[in-house]
Design brief:
The chain is 48% helix and 19% strand. It has 302 residues and is α/β, with parallel strands linked by helices. The chain has two domains: 169 residues, Rossmann fold (3-Layer(aba) Sandwich), CATH 3.40.50.720; 129 residues, Orthogonal Bundle (N-(1-d-carboxylethyl)-l-norvaline Dehydrogenase, domain 2), CATH 1.10.1040. An eight-stranded mixed beta sheet has the order 5-2-1-6-7-8-11-12, with helices on both faces. The N and C termini lie far apart (42 Å). 48% of the residues are buried.
């Protein structure tokens, strides 16, 4: 298959790198990363150890005809990404495993066939041309627009074939909410504490914070119609933190680099939904304010 990975950061490079072992993959990313991959290949270390050589560019070339577009930008860049990807809106299968709740709807405003899903693999961007697979996770995909079971089975088999086991779901909205709850419980706490995921389980106080955040977020998800069991999602959250113990969350990496985080797409979505439903989520509200303050401080000093 011809696959374009648009937004080749840590996660996009991981999926694109593994897919390139069996398919023609084009990574679209930042210039320094693209240059390193083009000259020396993409080095994957950690749980997966490989040197792969996908094609890489800073923009999709004219004449490209991808069968699949895997969108892996930050959630706040999805809308602008679709401007560049509109030429493939009728022909390609669009796949999003991004953080947040609104990406699939944003993509579906242009694209005719959309698959949405989640992944809990932990991947760290070490530098241009190199990523670290810090933790093995689950990948779930489901229909969003214009796809049937055959499309989903084919995509699952493509992932399975390159070492990314995936399962299908008929209730992808619940999976998206579960991922938001999980991310809200891990990312801002780890980012503000400045610690890898494993510390959230080992440190009693941090674990208590994760548990409170998770309970608040799960109550909002249930009010929004997601079929989430509070005890099960807390168990899953702590399991992901253990499996990705050495991983530094994307939000922590962004704060350390002075970049914008996805706090609005994650915790912000929970706080906004809680306000609509008349629910109290005080700890999530505090985390949202603190991460936004850190972002503002970084932007002023830049």
């Amino acid at each position: 298959m011809h696959i374009v990975v648009f937004g080749a950061g840590a996660m996009g490079s991981f999926f694109g790198g593994l897919l390139s072992s069996r398919h023609e993959v084009l990574l679209i990313g930042r210039a320094d990363h693209v240059r390193a991959v083009s000259e020396h290949g993409l080095r994957i270390t950690g749980k997966t150890i490989r040197l792969v050589r996908p094609e890489a560019a800073t923009k999709v070339p004219r004449g490209a005809k991808p069968d699949v577009v895997l969108l892996s930008t930050k959630a706040y860049d999805t809308e602008s990404a679709m401007v560049h990807l509109r030429p493939f809106a009728r022909s390609a299968l669009f796949v999003t495993l991004q953080n947040g709740l609104d990406n699939a709807d944003t993509i579906a405003r242009s694209a005719e066939r959309v698959v949405a899903g989640t992944t809990s693999h932990g991947v760290t961007f070490l530098g241009p041309g190199e990523i670290r697979h810090a933790g093995v996770g689950d990948t779930v995909i489901g229909p969003w627009k214009g796809v049937d079971e055959a499309d989903l089975v084919r995509l699952r088999d493509v992932f399975d074939d390159v070492g990314i086991p995936a399962r299908l779901t008929s209730d992808v909205r619940t999976e998206l909410w579960a991922k938001v709850v999980l991310n809200a419980s891990i990312n801002p706490v780890s980012a503000l504490a400045g610690v890898p995921n494993g510390r959230l389980v080992r440190d009693r106080r941090l674990r208590e914070a994760v548990e409170v955040v998770c309970r608040e977020a799960a109550s909002v998800a249930r009010a929004e119609g997601a079929r989430i069991d509070p005890g099960e999602i807390l168990h899953r959250t702590l399991l992901v933190a253990r499996r990705t113990a050495s991983n530094r969350s994307s939000m922590l990496q962004d704060l350390e680099a002075g970049r914008r985080t996805e706090i609005d797409a994650i915790t912000g979505a929970i706080v906004a939904a809680a306000e609509r439903r008349g629910l109290e989520v005080p700890v999530n509200g505090v985390l949202l304010s603190l991460v936004r303050a850190r972002e503002s401080a970084a932007s002023r000093s830049a």
